[in-house]
Specification:
Shape: globular
Strand content: 25-35%
CATH superfamily: CNF1/YfiH-like putative cysteine hydrolases
CATH class: Alpha Beta
Structural class: alpha+beta
Strand order of the largest sheet: 4-5-8-7-9-12
Oligomer: single chain
Number of strands: 13
Largest sheet: 6 strands, mixed
Radius of gyration: 17 Å
CATH topology: CNF1/YfiH-like putative cysteine hydrolases
Helix content: 10-25%
Order of helices and strands: EEHEEEEEEHHEHEEHEE
Number of domains: 1
Distance between the termini: 26 Å
Number of helices: 5
Length: about 250
């Protein structure tokens, strides 16, 4: 099993590749999503393996049902374990999670969309957020809105944009390019849009220091180590980016 890791301000974020799991094609092998047709027992084993590998108890993970919207939710201790084993307990219609609880893992499911993790210092300790941002959510401002929500309770310290579809592969039609050009001047690259640049712009506008914004710069659509909804025409698995405040 392999993953990229980011650490800052007491926050840890991990972005796994598709390696090291038990799922069969077309979800091979570390599919972490329960909504793509894979056997649930395989997904649960994959989630157990990931959490064990990164040192976060499975029962401390929180998962949402994402809808490409802008709704976010502050979660506390009582949310631990929601959506992890039983889909009926998932936090519904939510594309961003925020918390100040130590060792509570915020899970964001992706297969091209941007997983964004933001860290802040609050009056009582570390705050963090994990955001799922597709092109709709990016245009509608979920990244900046979530950063602002953190800023209301503390000082923004840093952020990371994990592996996701890059400007090399996010080719879109003229209408969508025009919408991005208005909302984020300079992010259109020929026939494509640079979602990483758009995310960075909104993070900076919300007050995250520009020198503390990390972009993984890995395109999921062009790197076979990652699941890609676009490359695989929808028949693929899902990653689970996980972020938490490491106690101590």
């Amino acid at each position: 099993m392999r993953w990229l890791a980011w650490e800052g301000a007491g926050v840890v974020a991990v972005f796994p590749t598709r390696e090291g799991g038990v799922s069969a094609a077309p979800w091979e092998t570390l599919n972490l999503g329960l909504s793509v047709g894979d056997e649930p027992v395989h997904v649960l084993e994959n989630r157990r393996r990931l959490c064990s590998a990164v040192g976060l108890p499975l029962k401390r993970l929180v998962v949402t049902r994402q809808v490409h919207g802008t709704a976010t939710s502050w979660v506390g201790e009582v949310a631990a374990g929601r959506g992890v084993v039983d889909p009926a307990t998932v936090i519904a219609a939510c594309d961003g999670l925020l918390t100040g609880v130590p060792d509570l893992g915020l899970g964001i499911s992706t297969a091209d969309c941007l997983p964004v993790v933001i860290a802040a210092a609050g009056e009582d300790g570390v705050l963090l957020a994990a955001v799922h941002a597709g092109w709709r959510g990016t245009l509608d401002g979920i990244i900046g809105q979530t950063a602002v929500a953190l800023a209301r309770r503390g000082c923004l310290l840093g952020a990371v944009v994990g592996p996701s579809i890059g400007p090399c592969c996010f080719v879109v039609d003229e209408e969508l390019r025009a919408r991005f050009a208005v909302r984020f001047p300079g992010v259109v690259r020929g026939n494509a849009v640079d979602l990483w640049a758009a995310a960075t712009a909104d993070l900076m506008a919300a007050g995250v220091p520009s020198g503390q914004i990390t972009v993984a710069g890995i395109c999921t659509a062009s790197d076979a180590r990652f699941f890609s909804h676009r490359r695989d025409h929808g028949s693929t698995g899902r990653h689970l980016a996980v972020a938490w405040q490491r106690s101590g």
